[in-house]
Batch of 3 targets.
Target 1
Amino acid sequence: MKVLISIVLLFTAFSLVAQEEAALFQQGNEAFSNKKYQDAVTKYEAVVAKGVRSDELYYNLGNAYYKTNQLGKAIYNFELALLNNPSNKDAAFNLEIANAQLKDEIAVLPTFFLTEWWRGLRGVFSSTVWSVLALLALWLLVGGIAGWLLYADRGKKKRMFLLAVLGLLLSVLLFTLAGQRWADELDTGYAIILEKVRPLHSAPDGESAEILTLHEGTKVQLLGDLSGWHKVRLVNGEQGWLPREALGRIMR
C-alpha cells in the first residue's frame, strides 16, 4: 500500500510539474500575441529551465528573441529547434531570414566533396532509422552464414557466402552511419556567438592578440576547450579562441 501511495504521489507531482510548464508556455504565447516580447522570452526561458526540450518551444523562443533584437539568441534557438526536429520548416525559414541579417560576411571555405557527400548521406535519416536498417543488414549476414552452413550445393553455398559478405559490409556501414548520426543529434560540434560583439583571440586569454572582431549570430565549429575558453574554427578556416560564456552550444 505504501508503494502504491508513493507511486500515486510521484505521478501527481509529475502531473503538477507538467501543468506548470504548460501554463508557462501558454503565458509566453499570450505575451507574444500581445507584443510583450520580453515577457514572452522570460516565460519561455522558464520552461527551458525546467528541462523541457521541444522544437516548438525553441522556435517560439527564437521568435521572441528576434522581436527583441537579440539576433544571436534567436539564431541559437532556431538551430536548437532544428536539432530537435529537422523537418520544422518554419524554424528553417526563420533561421534563413535571421542569418541574412548577420554582420559578419565570412567567405565559406569549400568542403572536400567526399566529406560533404558523407555528411549529406548521414543526414538523410535519423539515427533510429539507420539503426533499424543496420539490424536488417545484420539479419542478411546471419541468413547468409546459416545458408552457407546448411546448403550442400556448391552454387547455393557460394550465393549464401556472397550474401553474408554483403550483409557484413552493409551492417558495418549502416551502424557507422547510425552512430555518427546519433552523435550529431546529441551535439553538433557547433556553437553560436550570443554576445553583440566579441573579438576572436589568438590564445585562451583575454589579454592575447585579437585576430578579428565577430558579431552575434555567427556560427563557429568547436575544436577544443581550455580553462573556460573554446578553440573555434570559422567557415573560412580561420581559427582562434572565444570565452565559453560568449557561445551557445548547439546540443541537446
Note: Strands lie at 187-193, 197-201, 210-215, 219-226, 229-233, 239-243, 247-251.
Target 2
Amino acid sequence: MFPDEVDADLDVPFSQAPDYGAITEELQMLVRSGRMRSCWDMPPAEAFALTGVGVGLAARDWAHISWFGPLEIWRDPEHEVSDILYNGPSDEPFYVAQRGAMVCTGVTAHSDWITWTQRQLLLRGHKLQPAEETWPAMAQGVADRLRFAVAGPPVAREGRSLAVRLLPERWRTLDDLVQAELLSREASDLLLEALASGASLLVSGPTGSGKTTLTAALTQAISRRMRLVFVEDGGELPRAPNSLHLEVPAEEGGFARAVSFALRQKPSYIIVGEVRGSEAMALLQASATGHPGIGTIHASGAQGALRNLERMAMIGMAAETGGGGQAAAQIVRGLITSDTVSLLVAQIGLTARGRRAVLAIEEVLRQGGQGHSGDVFPTNTLFAHDPYQERLVRVGNVNAAWGLGRF
C-alpha cells in the first residue's frame, strides 16, 4: 500500500483514513464492559460524544466498521442468541430468541439508535450507498453474519423495526449433523450419492427447523468436486470452493432471471437459498436439461413441499406464457415427476421430544404428465424418523436409475 493510493469508496488517501479495525475493537469493548449500558437511551451522537469513540465519523466511515449499536449486546456466541427482534414502539424492549426460547431482554433504546442500526445494516450489507439518506420502507439482506429484515414508516406504523438472525461463525458439517443425530450416517451417504449422480433435492420444513443448516452442510460436502452457483437475495449460505454467488436483482421476476442466468455459469448444481416464487419453474426446467438444483422450501411435509413447488412453478409458467389451466398443470407436474429431474425431498423439523432432526427422505416417483393439479404426488419413502427409537431409519429402496439396485 502506497501513500498516494486512494480508497475509491472514501475518495481520500489511505493515509488519512481512520483506523477502522481499532474503532471496531474499541466500540466492542465498550459494550462488553457495560460502559454503553447508559447510552442506549440517548441519541447516537450524544453516546459517541460521551464515550469519545466514533465522534465525527461519516456514513462512508461507518460502512467500513462492523459494529451495530445495541445489537452488539447479544452478538457474542456465548449468549447463544439466534434472533434479535425490535417491534417499533420506543417504550418497548428488545426481544431475543435464546436457547430456543423467546426472551424479553428489558433493554430499550432511543428511536434514533434503531434508525442508526437500520442504516448500518444496510450500509454493511451493500444495500445502501453512503451518500444516500433514505431507504425503502422494507429492506433485507446479510451483513457480517447478520441476516436482517428491517421496516419503517409507512409500513411499520408504530416505528422502525428490526428482525435479525445471527448466522453461525462456523457452519456445521455433515459429520457434525450425524454426530448430533440430526440425520443418520446411512442417510447422509445416500444424499451425497444422489447429489453425486445428478439428482435434485428439496430441503423442506417449517421456519427455524434447520433447512439452511442442512443445505449448507450438503453444499460444503459436494463442493469439493463440483462447481456450485448460488442464487440468493441475501447471501446467507456460506461460500464454498469453486462456487459463484449471485445476488438476485431487486425487480419483478429477478429471481427467475437469476436462475436462468446461472445456467450460463457452467454449474454442476444451482443452489437456491429459498424457493418461494416463479423461480421454481426455472429451477425445474434447469434440472430437466441437465443442471440439477438444491433448494429449501417452507412446508410441513413432503407432499406440502411438492404442492408448494407445483403452485410456485405454475405462477412462473403463467408469467412466462401468460396462460395456465390444465395443460400448464400437466407440464409442471410432468417436470416434477420426470425421471430426468429425479427429485428427492428431505423433510426436517422437530421430533415428538422437541429435537431438531430430519424426519423423512422421500423420492418422487416417475409419473410424467399424468394426474391433476392438487393430486397426491407419487413418492417412495427411503428414510423415516422412528419416534420410539428416536432416530432416522431406513424403510425403502431407491427406484430412480441413479440408485436402483444399489440403494
Note: The longest strand covers residues 356-364.
Target 3
Amino acid sequence: MSNAIPLAQPSLTDLERQAVLEVLHSPFLACGPRAETFSHSIAELCSRSSGIPCSSGTAGLTLVLAALGIGAGDRVVVPAFGFVAMANAVWSLGATPLFADCDPRTLNVELESVAKLLEHKPRAVLAAETFGNPAGMPELEALCAAHEIPLIEDACEGLGGRIAGRSIGGFGRASVFGFYPNKQITTGEGGVIVTDDTRLAERCRSLANHGRGEDGATFVRPGWNFRLDEMSAALGIAQLSRLSEILDRREAVAAQYTARLSGNVDLILPSVEQGCRPSWFAYCVRLTGRWNATVRDEVIEAMAGHDISCARYFPSIPKTPAWQGRCEPKACHTPVADSISNRTIALPFFADLSTSDVDIVCQSLELMIERATFRHRSSSNNQVDGFDQA
C-alpha cells in the first residue's frame, strides 16, 4: 500500500508547520488574534466587510441560519445534489429542507426547480458551488432578490473561484467557507462566515461564542461554542498565503485529467462555463446514462483493489437512508440529482498529484470500465443488471 494514490491530501510545507509551532510558544491557544486575522483575510478576498471565524463549515451554516431566525416549522431550499451538511444544518434547527434538483451540466441547483420551491414559502435558499463551480450563482442571486428571500451561499468548496468578475463568497446575504483537509486550503477543522450585513455578523459572532455580547461578559442570547482555535487559524493564514500557487496547481491537475479522458465515450467530464474560473475542489466524472450504480460501485471497488482511492460524490441527499421519509413529498422530486448521483466517481485530486499518477488513475479507470462492460454484456443477452434499460 506504500504506492497507494489517495483521494485527497492537503498541500503542507514547513511554512505551515512553523506557523502552528509559533502558536504553541504564544500565550493564546484559543480566543486570540490569529482567528480574527484569518477570518478578516477571507472576507477581504471575497470583497466582504465582515469575517467571523467558526469551528467548521457546517457550524457556519448553522450560525447563519440561526442568526436569520430560522427554526422549528420553517422551510429552507437546499440542493439535492451536494454534501449532506447543508440539510443537516437546517435539520439541527428544527427546520425542514426543500430539496432542489440540479442542472445536469453544472451540477449546481437548477433555477426552475428553485423557483417552483419558492411557492412553499421558504425562509431562505441555501446553495453551493458544487465541486467549486460557480456557474449559475448570479442568476440564483437575482431570483432570490426578486422574491426578497435571503440567499445563503455555501462556498465551502469554492475558495478562490470567480464568475463574471465576482468572487465565490461574494453572493447573497452571507457566505460560508469550510477548511477540512480535502479543501483547497485547510485549517484541519474550521470555517469562516463572510457578510456585508453588520447586524447579521454580530449575531453570528455572538452565537459562535456561547451567546456573549460585545463586552464578552454578558450573555445576551443562547449560543454554541463554535469558535476557531489559534492553531487552526495559524495554519489557515499560512495556507492562504499560498492560495494562488495551490489553485494553479489544482487547475493544472484538472486540465491533465480532462486532456487524458476527453475521448472516452463512457464518461461525462466536468464542464466549465464561459466567464467562470472554477476553484477545483474535486475532479468528478460520471458514467454515461446507460450505466447505473451497480457498475459504478464495481468500478470504484476495482480501483481500490489497485490502490487507487475514488469516492461516490455525492449521493442524492433525499435518497440517503438518513433523509428518506424526512422531506415533504412535494418538495423532494429530484430525478436529475437521483440519476447523476448513481453514476459519479470522484477521482484522486490534490495539488501535489503527479502527472504519472494522473496517467495511472486514467489508465486504471478506463481498464476497469472496459472490464465492467465486457462482464455485464456477457452475462445474458443484454438483460444486464449493470445497464439502465430505459
Note: Residues 380-390 have pLDDT under 50 and may be disordered.
